[in-house]
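G., the chain you wanted modeled:
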Amino acid sequence: MSLQNSDILQRELSDQLAQMAAQLKRNATHFSESLAGDQAVMVDAQTKIEGNFDVMKAQRVRLRDHRGKSGSTTCLVLMSLLIVAISFVLMFFVIRLT
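Predicted structure as tokens:
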């Protein structure tokens, strides 16, 4: 009786092991397909990031050039405001004193 139970238990364990091996194979195949799909997405993302990097480098140069040109304009605006403020104060005193 014990030998039969042992034999039945061994068959059940063998069947379960075969099922687990089949499931493991299916999981490995699915994982491999997922990795292949993810690799395509990663390559696409890398291409887009490299393109963005090139655009950002070009924009950085444009911004640097613009900043250099706009510095003199800012100075001109500030000097104009200072002259207008001084003129206003002088006109105020001229009008008050006369």
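The two ends are 131 Å apart (CA to CA).

Shout if anything looks off.
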